[in-house]
Specification:
Radius of gyration: 20 Å
Largest sheet: 7 strands, mixed
Number of strands: 17
Oligomer: single chain
Distance between the termini: 12 Å
Helix content: 25-40%
């Protein structure tokens, strides 16, 4: 089979590899589509701190079951599936408490182990979620990014009518915003990019503010009738943004950091404390998040196709992915699709 290997920064190469083994508890899936994530972009650029070369990237994977291990009973050849890419150890304290997404020895397909940019991928059956219906593989590959938003939003314990600010209007920020809407929350985003603001308004019908405007704080006050927000979700990974988020929550409000700041964050301790906020960070997602996204997609509240702006055949991905990561590429979410 053919695999696209990232051998170093900006250095892709196609390789012929043997068809994967299928142990008793595993399933071999013919890969149909792989959505490209921001962490994949960082890996291509050589900026992914958890990453080592060489590696087959891609953890947002959709495919068709091709072979089933003898102990597998929940999946069959021909089933359409998407990958749940977290690989928990199953024995650490976090795993025993059900927090498999934050396992102390967590690995991910496409980061610590080879991922989806190959014709076949073998993984334990429990890592694959069967998806009913006839939607396109591209659509199914977008489910995993939506689960990241679902997991983050769940931290807020939202009630209908709650007001939420999402900082950063990239794919994960929009995922958070749309998931918050499924709880009946009122959502506004903020992003410094005029192109992102226009895209999100046109495609998702979301209100996206410019946080660099001189009157940004006054606008937030006006939107919330002076109450500020019940929850703020920050997807930027930017120190200057994350250190300001507490200013936009109401007393007793909640903050969720989705983006990972590789550095030290500083807060005004007294002012932060006086609001009695709750501060969360979020990592990855769980099967429950996948099941919730699947439910709300089937109900029509989530539309994965809206995210996808670019596609490329697997045979051309080695060159096209290098163009997609350029700042002026115009890519919001790109998908590599496989034929045959």
């Amino acid at each position: 089979m053919k695999a696209l290997v990232l051998k170093g920064p900006y250095d892709f190469s196609y390789e012929e590899r043997p068809y994967p083994d299928c142990p008793a508890d595993h399933v071999v899936v013919r890969v149909d589509a792989v959505c490209i994530c921001g962490s994949d972009i960082h890996a291509i650029q050589g900026h992914q701190p958890l990453f080592s070369f060489p590696r087959v990237i891609g953890h947002e994977v959709a495919g068709t079951v091709h072979q089933v291990g003898e102990a597998v009973t929940m999946l069959s050849v021909g089933d359409r599936v998407c990958l749940m890419p977290c690989i928990p150890c199953g024995s650490c304290r976090a795993c025993r408490k059900g927090y498999t997404n934050s396992c102390s020895k967590l690995q991910l397909y496409g980061v610590h182990r080879d991922g989806g940019l190959q014709e076949y991928l073998a993984a334990p059956a429990e890592r694959w979620l069967k998806v009913p219906g006839t939607s396109s593989p591209q659509t199914l590959s977008m489910l995993e990014p939506l689960t990241i938003g679902a997991h983050a939003v769940a931290k807020l314990n939202l009630q209908p009518g709650d007001q939420v600010l999402v900082v950063g209007a990239g794919p994960i920020g929009v995922s958070c915003a749309l998931n918050a809407r499924t709880y009946g929350a009122q959502v506004v985003l903020a992003d410094t990019s005029p192109q992102r603001r226009a895209f999100c308004k046109e495609i998702f019908h979301l209100e996206v503010l410019d946080p660099l405007r001189y009157d940004y704080p006054e606008i937030l006050q006006k939107i919330t009738s002076g109450n500020l927000f019940d929850g703020v979700i920050d997807t930027t990974a930017a120190k200057t943004s994350m250190e300001q988020d507490w200013k936009w929550i109401c007393h007793g409000g909640k903050i969720v950091f989705v983006g990972i700041c590789n550095g030290t964050l500083e807060l005004d301790g007294l002012s932060f404390h006086m609001r009695e906020p709750s501060l969360f960070v979020t990592r990855n997602s769980t099967r429950q998040d996948f099941e919730r996204v699947l439910q709300y997609w089937q109900l029509g509240f989530l539309e994965p196709d809206q995210f996808i702006t670019h596609t490329v055949p697997f045979e051309q991905a080695d060159q096209v992915l290098l163009r997609w990561i350029q700042p002026d590429s115009g890519v919001f979410k790109g998908v590599v699709h496989f034929t045959g």
